[in-house]
Amino acid sequence: MGSNLPILVVEHSSFQNLIHLVNNQACLMLNHISQKTISSHVTKMYVQLQQKVKLDVLERQPTISFTHNVWTAPNITAFMAGTAHFINKNFKMVDLTIAHLILGKTLPVCFTRYFKNTKSSGSFM
After folding, report:
1. Within a 13 Å sphere around the CA of 37, how many CA atoms are in the beta-carbon half?
2. Would you tell me which of 15, 47, 53, 103 could form a disulfide with 78, CB atoms 3.0–4.6 Å apart?
3. pTM of the entire structure?
4. What does the pLDDT look like over 31-44, one tens digit per residue?
5. How far apart are the C-alpha atoms of 89 and 57, rounded to whole Å?
6. Sequence spans of domains, the chain
7. Residue 79's closest CA among 68, 90, 92?
8. Measuring CA to CA, how many Å separate 112 from each of 100, 106, 117, 119?
9. Which CATH number is 62-125 given?
10. How far apart are the C-alpha atoms of 42 and 47, rounded to whole Å?
């Protein structure tokens, strides 16, 4: 927002009264708008735009390499990410994160759980 107001402002009666003054029919929408719905909508829009940009950029590359990485952050949270790498027309290396996932807990816990499950099933693959 241009005025750096928090999204929570949409839930204040003074904001809703202002909207009512400007557009009486907008009041019907205000009953369904909250900080949570706006945050959710903005997040969805961001993810959709991010995916479109990635696809548009990657689609134009003649060759792409992919890497996969897993790590534990200092706060003991495990993450996994996939990255696409390519060399652009100016011969510069470009790295583009195409996916990321929060695994939760620590990697040793995740691997221990995995190996317990595979050990009981008798197969590692």
Report:
1. 9
2. 103
3. 0.47
4. 667 777 777 777 78
5. 12
6. 1-60, 62-125
7. 68
8. 22, 10, 9, 10
9. 3.10.450
10. 9
